[in-house]
Design a protein that fits this description.
about 325 residues; mainly alpha; two-stranded antiparallel sheet; 11 helices; about 10% strand
Amino acid sequence: MEITLRGIEIGGLQVRFYSMMILLGLFVGILLAQRLAKRLGEDPAHAVNLAVVGAISGIIGARLYHVFDQQEWPRYRDSPADIFAVWNGGIGIFGAVAGAILGLVIYTHFRFGLRRFVSVPFDVPVLVRRRPAVSTLRWLDIGAPAFLLGQAIGRWGNYFNQELFGKPTDLPWAVTIPTDHVAREAPEFLGFNTFHPLFAYESLLNFLGVAVIVFLIYRFGSRLRSGDSLSMYLVWYPAVRFSLEFLRTDPWEQAGIPMAQIVSVAMFAFGAGSIAYRHLRATSEPEAMLVLPVGEPPRSRSAERRRRRRPGQQRDA
């Protein structure tokens, strides 16, 4: 058995730490989604199904976003087999977001069923309309912080692949990158050895974003409206990505502007605008809130303890 920074090799079997971090992020994201689903009165079983569907569609979208990067496309055009080597790294998070949302929309509207056609002598799996339908917007609200948590954990896969490092720096927390990785990722900085740990910056900020969104759901759920959690994600992550893009080496640009910043601005504007629209527009029908759909809103722990205290019972001094 041989253990390296990239993974563990046992005989001819190699387990990449990059893939392990992606799977760990998926697993922990599922756990968070199940907790939020219970909080919002939804069936937690959907969390696992959505994670599987979203992971597949998200990986496809993420890989396509990376492959068609104008700086990466020539390499994949010459070696098409490398397109499928996801374990070697190379995914675009904005493609993952789009793919995961598409997968969620498909899941909430359709399900797999069996149908026999005249020309086929056996049952064929097909997509059929889901009845009753699952609330797309409600599960987008549940999935947004869970997806952000998966991003925060999965970003550490970039450390094991020695990629997604920033510009050179001599700060105490700088990471040392081997020369061959620098030559591949940022050849213009071949004379440097230590760089900004961009993956760590994004991971820590994403963890903070998860904490903020989940806190707002639990603390101010009665004031939130359906779609607010998703909108908060569309505000938080683009702001993080826009800011960190200034430290990226050789980003994909259009008209001299990093494509990631262009997409970030569009996502941020949509997220902030959707929050303002939902909370400022006049409506006679109250929209569904991010609280349990039936029964009274859950009390805080301190309020629950006070309620349970018997009349005349005094707190210990």
